[in-house]
Every structure is written in C-alpha cells, then in structure tokens.
C-alpha cells in the first residue's frame, strides 16, 4: 500500500523504515489537517499520531482522495471522529497497547523529579551551588497515590508504586478484578481525590472524562497534593489548575500532555515568542514540570508501535481479521 505518514519526525522515519513490511511510505513533517489534506491524493492509507486531526471535514476529503484506511500509531483516538469515519466507510486501526511500562515509568520519573527536585539539584551543582535549601522532598514509602484509570498503563504504574511501598487507591468505572484481588482499593472519584497525596491520570479522553480535573474536583484534593497527567491534556481544565497552583491548593503538577499541545509539542520553538499564555504561566511555576508528550518515547515502545502499525496495514491489505479496528 502507499501510505502517507503525517507528523513524521526523524525517529518515526527511522523506526517505520526499519520495520516496514513492504509498503511504500512517504513522510510529511506536518500534522494532518484540512489545509494540507490535498497531500493525501493517490494514497491508500494515512498513518497518524496524537496531534493529527481527523474530524468529519478531513475524513470526507481523505475519502474523496481515495484513502481507505487510517493507521493510528498511538493508543488514544480522541482526535478521530469515529462516527463520521463509520458513515464514510473509512477504516481506523490503532496500536491499542505498546509498552505501557514506557508511560508508567515516565509518570514515575515525573513524581520523583517533582518530589526530590533532581532537575534543580543538577543545575545548582553545575553552578557550584551545593546548598540544600528548598530541595526537601517527602518519602514515597507509605505515601497515598490515587490512580484514575487502571488499564494497561495504570496497572504498570501500580506495580512500580507497590515497589516504592506506596499505599495505592484507584477510581475506574470498570475496576480490574485481578488488581482488586491483589489488594488495590477502588473508591469513588471524590473519595480517591480527597484521600491521596499524589493523583495520576491514566484514563482515556472521552465526553465523560473531559476536564475531569476542574475547579470543583480540585477542591477535593488534599492541600499541597501532586497531580500527574500523562494521558491527554483535555482531562484537565488548565485555567482551573493554574488558579489552584496560585492558591497553593495544588502543590505540584507534572504534565506530559497539554490541551493545546498540537501548536507546541514536538517542535523547536526556542527562537519564537510563545503565544499561548496558559502554558507560559505554567512554565513559570517552580513546582510544575512539563515534558512534551514523551511518555511513550522508548526504543521498545517505538519498535512495538512500528511492528503493530505494519501488522495492522498487512491485515487490511490482505483481507485478514483486524482486531485493532476501532468503531464508534
Ligand atoms: N503520554 C504518552 O505518551 C501516552 C502514551 C500512550 C497512551 N497515553 C494515554 O494514556 C491513556 C491510558 O492508556 P492505557 O493504555 O492504560 O488505556 P486502557 O484502555 O488500557 O485503560 C484505560 C482505563 O481507563 C478507564 N476509564 C475509562 N473512562 C474512565 C474515567 N472517566 N475515569 C477513570 N477511568 C476511566 C478504563 O475503564 C480503563 O481501565 C490513553 O487513553 C492515552 O490517552 C499517553
């Protein structure tokens, strides 16, 4: 098949070329949107990532251009209008799980960095400053951590946190019986937010979870609690979180995702003036750590993403069963 790969960075090209099972690949650096959808003429499929847009208008244009398949090289699919895709008859295949440990380990790295401030210590020592002032953290042993969502990534983080001796509780509308049998305590969203020192989000972005962290739910947090989001930016109302940080209600914030990330993340904007005032404000807090959607970014995950993407492409091309198809 002839596949147009959008949002293609050098590392995408490296891994997709290495594991290609004989498809013709053309790489585009831009994210797919209505303005550049004309590029997809004469392609059989497009390969998309988290910040490519496949709304109804884009999907209609893709179909007009002869595109029959969307290969998502990610797990989340909130950027695709599934109803419109089903009506138009365009298939959507994704990579449902690839090294959930990669994202869970990144969430843990954010917790450790925010708590023990190793990023500040690194810079201080390089500057000849060996003072410990304001570097004090807290023990994770016995700390209460709430997992919002206990699917593949939540489960992987649960195992890591257990190793640290944390006391873990969770909210998930579909609790996992195996984890429950292992002693994980499930409770309502309000209860787990009220009880935890650290809250980590691992649920998908849906109509139900949109802005699940907002002015009201932030009031449930313990004063000085830590919030980690490695899932999707729009789980959080950013303006409300900024107010909570300013008042000291929220004590630490770790973000690997951001609601308006598509205009920022994966690009070097170091010579530009950032126009997004919310992220500029977030960056200014001493207790906020932001990474640009790199949770997935390990060698193992990149290999699995490439392999599963091509097995999805092969299944479609050869009329085989497509277990990774998503429908509304
Ligand atoms: N930062 C990254 O690089 C990166 C990489 C991969 C995935 N992700 C994000 O992580 C999310 C979780 O991934 P996963 O593989 O664990 O997904 P998963 O489908 O295995 O698990 C999601 C869990 O969330 C639960 N859930 C659904 N709605 C919920 C709600 N409103 N409140 C609480 N729980 C809810 C589900 O029941 C399920 O148990 C993905 O949706 C994606 O957005 C981020």
> How many individual domains?
2
Helix content: 25-40%
Bound molecules: nicotinamide-adenine-dinucleotide
Shape descriptor: globular
What name does CATH use for the topology of the largest domain?
Rossmann fold
The DSSP helix count reads: 12
Query: Runs with pLDDT <50, length 5+?
Result: none
Structural class assignment: alpha/beta
Cα separation of the termini: 25 Å
The average pLDDT value, as a whole number, equals 97
So, the CATH homologous superfamily of the largest domain?
NAD(P)-binding Rossmann-like Domain
Order of helices and strands: EHEEHEHEHHEHEHEHEHEHEHEH
State Rg: 21 Å
Q: How many strands appear in the DSSP assignment? A: 12
Q: What kind of sheet is the major sheet? A: 7 strands, parallel
CATH architecture of the largest domain: 3-Layer(aba) Sandwich
Organism: Pedobacter rhizosphaerae
GO molecular function: D-lactate dehydrogenase (NAD+) activity; NAD binding
Domain D-isomer specific 2-hydroxyacid dehydrogenase NAD-binding: 108-295
Family: Belongs to the D-isomer specific 2-hydroxyacid dehydrogenase family.
């Amino acid at each position: 098949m002839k596949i147009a790969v959008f949002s293609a960075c050098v590392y995408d090209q490296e891994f997709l070329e290495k594991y290609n099972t004989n498809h013709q690949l053309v790489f585009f650096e831009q994210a797919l949107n209505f303005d550049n959808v004309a590029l997809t003429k004469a392609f059989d499929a497009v390969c998309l990532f988290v910040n490519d847009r496949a709304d109804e208008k884009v999907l209609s244009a893709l179909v007009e251009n002869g595109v029959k398949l969307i290969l998502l090289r990610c797990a989340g699919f909130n950027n695709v209008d599934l109803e419109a895709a089903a009506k138009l008859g365009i298939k959507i295949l994704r990579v449902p799980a690839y090294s959930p440990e990669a994202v869970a380990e990144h969430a843990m790295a954010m917790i450790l960095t925010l708590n023990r401030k190793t990023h500040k210590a690194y810079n201080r020592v390089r500057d000849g400053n060996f003072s410990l002032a304001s570097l004090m953290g807290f023990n994770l042993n016995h700390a209460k951590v709430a997992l919002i969502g206990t699917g593949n990534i939540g489960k992987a983080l649960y195992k890591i946190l257990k190793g640290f001796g944390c006391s873990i509780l969770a909210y998930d509308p579909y609790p996992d019986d195996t984890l429950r049998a292992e002693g994980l305590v499930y409770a309502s969203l309000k209860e787990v937010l009220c009880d935890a020192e650290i809250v980590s989000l691992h649920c998908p972005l849906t109509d139900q979870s949109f802005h699940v962290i907002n002015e009201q739910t932030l009031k449930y947090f313990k004063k000085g609690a830590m919030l980690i989001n490695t899932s999707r930016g729009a789980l959080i109302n950013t303006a409300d979180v900024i107010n909570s940080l300013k008042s000291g209600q929220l004590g630490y914030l770790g973000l690997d995702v951001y609601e308006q990330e598509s205009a920022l993340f994966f690009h070097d904007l170091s010579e530009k003036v950032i126009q997004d005032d919310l992220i500029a404000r977030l960056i200014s807090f001493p207790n906020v750590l932001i990474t640009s959607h790199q949770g997935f970014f390990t060698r193992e995950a990149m290999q699995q993403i490439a392999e599963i993407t091509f097995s999805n492409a092969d299944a479609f091309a050869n009329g085989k069963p497509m277990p990774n198809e998503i429908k509304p």
